[in-house]
Amino acid sequence: MKILHVYRSEPEADTNKLVEIVSEGREASEFKLYEGNVDYDKLVDMVFEADKTVCWW
What we know:
Elements: E1 2-7, H1 13-23, E2 27-32, H2 40-49, E3 52-56
Parallel strand pairs: 1-2, 1-3
């Protein structure tokens, strides 16, 4: 199962731990909305490629 983690802001230690738990045994990728210019076309492609998408505020 492929999982995509989308971050609205830089993750804190608690968020990183939760991401680690949720991603265990899965192929995981990340998309950081808080870094510079956002390539929304790439984000849409990544969402459709993933089986599950989790958004972190």
